Amino acid sequence: MNEMNDYISEYFKFIRPSFLCFQSTMRMRMRRFSNNLSSIPPNNLRPFSQLSTNFPDKIISTPNFPEKIISTSNSQNQILDTLLTHKSNPKSALKFFKGVERKRGFVKTVDVFSLLLQILSSTPQTHSSLRNLLNNYVFGDSSPSPKVLVEHLLECSGRYGFESDSRVFNYLLNSYVRANKIVDAVECFRTLLEHDVIPWVPIMNILLTAMVRRNMICNARQLYDEMVERGMYGDCFTLHVVMRACLKEGKFEEAEKFFKEAKGRGLKLDAASYSIVVQAVCKRMDLNLACKLLKEMRELGWVPSEGTYTSVIVACVKRGNFVEALRLRDEMVSSGVPANVIVATSLMKGHCMQGDVNVALQLFDEIVASGVAPDVGMFSLLIDGCSKIGDMEKAYDLYTQMKLMGIQPTVLIVNFLVKGFWKQNLLENAYGLLDEAVERGIANVVTYNIILMWLCELGKVKEACNLWDKMMSHGITPSLVSYNNLILGHCKKGCMDDAYSALNDILERGLKPNAVTYTLLIDGFFKKGDSERAFVMFEQMLAASIAPTDHTFNTVINGLGKTGRVFEAQDKLKDFIKQGFIPTSITYNSIINGFVKEGAIDSALFAYQEMRERGIFPNVITYTSLINGFCKCNKIDLALEMHNDMKNKRMELDVTTYSALIDGFCKMQDMESASKFFSELLAIGLAPNAVVYNSMISGFRHLNNMEAALNLHQKMIENKVPCDLKTYTSLIGGLLRDGKLSFALDLYSEMISKGIVPDIFMYTVLINGLCNHGQLENAGKILKEMNGNNIIPSVLVYNTLIAGHFKEGNLQEAYRLHDEMLDKGLVPDDITYDILVNGKLKVSHTLAGA
Fold first, then answer.
1. Nearest Cα residue to 221 out of 241, 194, 201, 203
2. Which of 735, 790, 657, 631 is nearest to 727 (CA)?
3. What are the start and end residues of each PPR repeat (predicted)?
4. Residue 151: which H helix or E strand, with range?
5. Which backbone phi and psi does 59 adopt, to 5 degrees?
6. What is the pLDDT of residues 396-415, one digit of tens each?
7. Per residue in 135-154, is it b (16+ CB within 10 Å) or e — as a string?
């Protein structure tokens, strides 16, 4: 820079007399420029083309040389002539130029500059000076344009007879790249090609690399195509640049194409070329070719790099080819390339995807022992895997280990653990982890949402509301998902006013409810039996321009079916189809099941036929609903046809299907057929539930086969199937009928100890059985128990007790019970008066059934 300042100072000392007539203002400006030049940063130096325009010389603009300035004197011609005398001595030419440059009034034109550049390029001794001149020129606000300068240089070369040498052009092109003037560099490059000047391959590579780094991918590839048209394929490095450009653009097949073309024309490829193409092949998941290329590399004597092995191993895991991934890992290690964190994490992910979390944990221990430091991603993967398989003890151990290693947990890891605790119903553990996450400042709204949904699904809405308040107190704003979870909880509890209030809160906070919000409310109102408000929600949803989802449409149809409005559901389905809804088996199952519940089996079959005509295949639920309907209306033959049809279609029958068939046969008292299906159910590996057992127990009880019924009860206990109220009612009723009072009362005590609360039917069975066997005192205790449980005895219960006391001659107690019945607001029926008049109870059908 100091040398440049000297040049400018000398330039003003020897200004020609012809310039003494310049305006005084211009002289002052130029002197000021000379005096202050040393303080101007290099990048702010104005190029010679702009300095020359400050002089009042005549500017001659021509199409080819718009920047050429010719002085009114012949000084420029003299400089050119003098430079030519130094043509064979570039150093003296440069010295002369520097001297002239220091003189006042010197105007450096493109002609002079071009000639000097050509002279300097003629010998290696001045190549460094050539580079410096070009760098200074380009780094400034250079002018003329690259195209004009290149053409001046070419014209100069031809005019003065310089040997054809592209050095000056290559240096110029390199200077444009170094100055980050890529557009100018491209213009320079294309101008050279137009004039058949072939840039050096390394310079060409530098330009392409710069373009790729600046995301000028399309331009780089276009430029390369122009090179290829002239037979300029470049070298291996050129191939690297072009292939990497393809990778950056996501055009993996093109990268492979360039590789094959280079190989086909005999270019001696290097290991880097193979590594890049392997990456491209792995991106498009062609594992066979990737492994073939790896093999070629090894045959050529190269050890694939860590990155190359990593790419192939990761691709193998993604494609599920775990055996090959493990083989490559072993090959990698045996070649002296250490397995890295990415390889280890990928292999662990593969094990976890296959459900082999324990194998992933073993690999983790091996990797840690080998000195590879696990990162947060590795811990995250394993904690998620352990949480998904329910091994929360190991998941939490890993969490603790991670913290001891100084690796900070992420909110993602916390959420994995919370989900795992949910799966194992470990609510207290989840609360403890949440508190820790809050202290660390990593708990977010998703963390709270997981626990909110958990609590709401459990029906613990009050706890959910408390958690909500805690979330708000920590400055975490509820999301729409938070509100949807709360609405779900209120709907499950049947608190629809609270659910609707949550919707208003959403609107007040400026959030926009979505289809999930309204669908939850619609479903909640239908389950509450409030169809009208359900439709109000549906209309409100449409008014808010929220498009119903398929789930919304199905919820409406299902809700109508469950509230006894199945014919209306059919009409709605037609309307929904007009709106673009495409019904599925779920849709028709709701309608079919609705008709079955109403006993309209013909309408159910009509819906089934319509379903088939629409090309919708019935599933297990469809068949089960129809089988259940046929059994209810005693069309067991049609139920069996449906069962056989399912078998012919190789559909897997579930417990619900067998339950419907077994219950149908039990009600027909065909226990042989019921037992056959019960055995079939066990044979295919299904576990009978309480519903199936209850049907079988009730069937045997009606046939007075209490031994078989009690054996089934014992199997329930052995198989840990929980006995419910219906189970105990059937067994106790049968035992009381057989006079096995002690056994019956033992079962009753067992039932109470399990927390099962008797209902009016159970109490009726007990009192009837005790009275029939003269156990009036115990029957009276049962009556008091009913009163204690706030269960109002029925007229049938009082009739049974009154009849029992009449039979025993306890008339006073019989009349007291009659008065008590009246006090409870019960209206005596004809049977009551028949007992009081005749002193006996005619056994009713209900009692006989009990």
1. 241
2. 735
3. 165-199, 235-269, 270-304, 305-339, 340-374, 375-409, 444-478, 479-513, 514-548, 549-583, 584-618, 619-653, 654-688, 689-723, 724-758, 759-793, 794-828
4. helix 146-160
5. -100, 120
6. 999 999 999 999 999 999 99
7. bbbbbbebbbebebbbbbbb
Q: Is the per-residue pLDDT at 2 higher than 60?
A: no
Over range 806-835, report the average pLDDT: 85
Is 134 inside any structural domain?
Answer: no
Positive or negative torsion for Cα 17, 19, 25, 27: negative
Q: Which residue type sits at 426?
A: L
Reduce the secondary structure of 464-477 to three states and give it as a string.
HHHHHHHHHHCCCC
Q: Report the alpha-carbon distance of residue 506 to residue 182 in Å, rounded.
A: 54
Residues 6+ apart with CB under 8 A from 152: 65, 110, 111, 114, 144
Backbone angles phi, psi at 627, to 5 degrees: -60, -45
pTM over 0.70, yes/no:
no
Token duo for residue 41: 């940063």
Q: Report whether 120 contacts 127 (CB < 8 A).
A: yes
What CA–CA distance (Å, rounded) separates 760 from 767? 11
Residue 135 belongs to a domain? no
pLDDT tops 70 at residue 69 = no
- Whole domain around residue 788: which residue ranges? 761-849
Q: The domain spanning residue 816 has which CATH number?
A: 1.25.40.10
Question: In total, how many domains does the chain have?
Answer: 1
The string over 277-288, giving b where at least 16 C-beta atoms fall within 10 Å of a residue's C-beta and e elsewhere, is: bbbbbbbeebbe
Cα(194)–Cα(154) distance, rounded to whole angstroms? 12
Both structure tokens of 236: 């291996």
Give residue 1's identity as a one-letter amino acid code: M
Q: What whole-number distance in Å separates Cα of residue 275 and Cα of residue 297?
A: 9
Which token pair is 409?
Answer: 């947990």
DSSP assignment of 229-259 equals: HTT----HHHHHHHHHHHHHHT-HHHHHHHH
The number of beta carbons lying within 10 Å of the beta carbon of residue 826 is 17
- CA proximity to 411, closest of 460, 373, 450: 450
The reply to whether 582 falls in a domain is: no
Taking the C-alpha atoms of residue 771 and residue 768, their distance in angstroms, rounded to an integer, is: 5
Cross-strand pairs, 69: 59
- Three-state DSSP at 69 gives strand
Task: Tell me, yes or no, whether 844 lies in a domain.
Answer: yes
Identify the burial level of 840 via C-beta atoms within 10 angstroms of its C-beta, where 0-12 means exposed, 13-18 middle and 19 or more buried. Answer: exposed
Question: Residue 713's closest CA among 728, 733, 735?
Answer: 728
Q: What is the 3-state secondary structure (H, E, C) of 377-415?
A: HHHHHHHHHHHHCCCHHHHHHHHHHHHHCCCCCCHHHHH
59: three-class secondary structure by DSSP = strand
Q: In 512-565, where does DSSP find H-type helix?
A: 515-527, 531-543, 550-562
pLDDT (tens digit per residue) in 319-350 = 888 788 888 888 888 888 877 788 888 888 88
Beta bridge partners of 59: 69
